[in-house]
Specification:
By secondary structure, the protein is α/β, with parallel strands linked by helices. It contains eleven helices and 22 strands. The model has no long low-confidence stretch (mean pLDDT about 95). It is an enzyme of class 3 (hydrolase).
């Protein structure tokens, strides 16, 4: 064997791309940016996914009595979670191929009683969602998106701050001239969660001497949306960065945007399932909620949505399909936990062990385990399944690399992989490396995004 065949050498996507592939990478990124701009909350992401799927021939499963190979169906739950399936040539007794990603991202949620007035200004109280660095959310333009559910059953959609001419909102910061005490505190302490209050107005209602600004805001909200202060109690309103997805760099090689963890995997797996026609096994793209807070609730991976979705499919393939058949299906199934990982940042190299860290532009990342310290709360994929995936990547000439979420004992994190594994699947984490993960502006390479899409498409077609 030649010496170069003995060595494992990392590759760079850009260095191998010819003119045709380069154009495909850039074109794919433009579509991806448009998707990001339409999907800043889990609800708007869900809505975009459903609309795209319906336009590509997927039918709500409630409209289908019997399924055949090649049929395309969608299953939804609670206006937040979705499964898209393309029925395979083999029965469910042979298992399915699943790619699961999450649609929720770190954000600021309005509290149930958010509106108050202080010092002649109106503000909203928020409660942050997921793992954020609180200081990153001050002094930036924020949009307000979500729904207000009124007591009469009416659902009012709210989206302010994303369209040209819209007002935006912000959380104010302390001027450096007066920040002597603040600047000596730890980063985790100099801004408290209760200080993440959204500035929303400053004009008092004429004739009102007390809480005039608050009353004026309520008048405007009722005029524009027909809502009252009590309606906030049954609302899901989120403050998210108001900016669109950007190209980054003189060469436009990178995408800078809010919510790429994990919507980069959402979009790439969406494109992969849309282009899957007649797979060997039934292919399922799962878009789940609540990953950033532990996969809890009826829309999180710990809920029963996936089980119910596969049973819905199974019963339309075989009326005798039951719970035993379901778990036999899972035990013979293969899955990718489609999630991002940390890329090597030249400004912060010390937190990663370079031999096992993912590089921006190095292709899709295969991550054997996540977790923290002694591999706690991880899946730790089997050697056999990793070998299977390696073979698939080589066959399709996909540029790939391995990754690890930080040095041992440095920190860590988790995905939905271990929850999928507990159902019986062979599963591994596989996605895109990011810079500035969980920040209001995350950075990904267009080349890595494209290779991720190619990986998911190959996996569905295997």
């Amino acid at each position: 064997m030649k010496q170069e065949e003995l060595l494992y050498t990392r590759k760079n996507v850009w260095s191998q791309a010819d003119a045709g592939m380069l154009q495909e990478i850039l074109s794919f990124a433009e579509d991806y940016k448009r998707f990001l701009n339409s999907a800043k909350t889990e609800r708007s992401c869900f809505k975009s996914l459903v609309n795209i799927a319906l336009g590509q021939g997927f039918r709500p499963i409630a409209e289908v009595r019997q399924l055949r190979p090649g049929d395309r169906v969608l299953i939804t739950g609670h206006n937040k979670v979705l499964a898209l399936a393309v029925i395979g040539q083999e029965g469910l007794d042979k298992g399915i191929t699943l790619i699961g990603s999450h649609t929720d991202v770190p954000r600021l949620d309005l509290k149930p009683n958010p509106l108050y007035e202080e010092q002649g200004l109106a503000l909203f109280k928020t409660h942050y969602y997921g793992g954020i660095k609180k200081y990153q959310w001050v002094a930036i333009p924020l949009a307000l998106q979500g729904v207000v559910c009124k007591a009469n059953g009416q659902v009012v959609e709210v989206s302010i701050g994303d369209r040209p001419g819209d007002p935006v909102f912000t959380i104010t910061d302390l001027l450096p001239h007066l920040a002597k005490d603040q600047m000596v505190k730890k980063v985790t302490e100099f801004l408290e969660g209760e200080q993440l209050n959204l500035l929303i107005g400053g004009i008092p209602l004429k004739g009102e001497k007390e809480q005039g600004v608050k009353k004026n805001i309520l008048q405007l909200l009722h005029k524009n949306y027909g809502i009252t202060e009590e309606d906030f109690i049954s609302a899901e309103l989120e403050a998210v960065p108001a900016w669109p997805a950007y190209d980054i760099g003189f060469d436009r090689s990178l995408v800078g945007a809010y919510g790429q963890d994990d919507r980069v995997c959402v979009y790439t797996s969406l494109r992969a399932i849309l282009e899957t026609v007649l797979p060997k096994r039934t292919a399922v793209a799962l878009f789940i909620d609540k990953e950033e807070i532990g996969s809890t609730g009826n829309t999180g991976m710990n809920g029963r949505f996936l089980q119910n979705a596969v049973v819905e499919i199974g019963c339309r393939l075989n009326p005798q399909y039951n719970e035993l058949a379901l778990y036999r299906t899972f035990a013979r199934s293969l899955a990718i936990s489609a999630d991002v990982t940390a890329g090597v940042d030249p400004n912060f190299e010390g937190v990663l062990e370079k031999n096992n860290a993912a590089k921006i532009g190095g292709g899709v990342v295969v991550t054997k385990y996540t977790g923290a310290k002694g591999k706690y709360h991880t899946n730790d994929a089997s050697a056999e399944f990793i070998a299977y995936l390696r073979k698939l990547l080589h066959e399709h000439k996909i540029t790939w690399q391995t990754g690890e979420l930080g040095k041992v004992d440095q920190g860590g994190g988790g995905t939905i992989a271990h929850i999928i594994a507990e159902l019986g699947f062979e599963v591994i984490d596989c996605g895109v490396p990011l810079l500035s993960m969980h920040a209001p502006l995350e950075v990904a390479s267009k080349a890595d995004i494209y290779e991720c899409y190619r990986t998911y498409k190959a996996f569905f077609g295997a």
